[in-house]
Amino acid sequence: MLTLIYQLEKRILKIKGSLPYFSQGHNIYFSQEKFNDTIEYISDVLQLDITRFKVNEFEFGGVVKSSHDFSTIKNNHHSLNKKDKIREHENWKMFVNNLLWLKMYDVNSNVKKKVKKLIRDSLREEGKLIKNINYVKIEMVYKNPEQYFKRQMSVTDLQSPAFHALLLTDLENNYAQLTNPKGDSVLN
Q: Which helix (H) or strand (E) holds 12?
């Protein structure tokens, strides 16, 4: 679901929500092509070119298979930065500061709670969600991308393959900075 907030007098349109859930009913996998198609669809529906819109916050992440169960992974990752706050629950852990959040969570648990059975079954049929495999989603939530990247961000930036590669490198680098005394990695 997406929420649209339009302030005519300020010429501001805010679009909040998850593009993957909006377009495909889950956020496990969301390709660059699917992202671009979703942006085009929203632009068509609104009859506005939203590619030039400023981006105030966004998420980027990926899913990996792990030989470890999620509780082992969660318990072996302690901090990203000594100043970060740590928030956690049985099925997720988050390292939070004012510029970004690094989240990791148990995909299987998340899917059971948030994704309709029909979509779960389809993911299994496609081989994207296999029973008895531990899947972990690692996400970066860029809370202030303008400050983080030291420039204003637009939807066009998020559509760029070069920027996508930069985000992947940033995700890997931030994950690598997590203190992990046992040396176990969910990205390898």
A: strand 12-17
One-letter amino acid for residue 76 of the chain:
N
The two structure tokens encoding residue 30: 């969301």
CA distances to 44, 102, 104 from 86, rounded to whole Å, are: 40, 10, 12
**Residue 48 is which amino acid?**
L
Helix boundaries (H) for the chain = 19-24, 32-46, 70-75, 107-114, 117-125, 145-149, 155-159, 161-176
The residue written with tokens 């979509």 in the block is: 119
How open is the CA angle 5-94-133, to the nearest 5 degrees?
105
Pairwise CA distance, residues 159 & 132, whole Å: 34
Tokens 């496990």, residue? 28
Number of alpha carbons in the 13 Å side-chain half-sphere of residue 38 = 21
Q: CA 29 to CA 35: how far, in whole Å? A: 11
Contact call for residues 81 and 180 (beta carbons, < 8 A): no
Count CB-CB contacts under 10 A for residue 45.
9
Q: What is the pLDDT of residues 17-55, one digit of tens each?
A: 999 999 999 998 899 999 999 999 999 998 889 998 999
pLDDT single digits (tens) 59-105: 999 998 888 888 888 888 876 666 678 888 889 999 888 899 999 99
How does DSSP classify residue 76? Answer: T
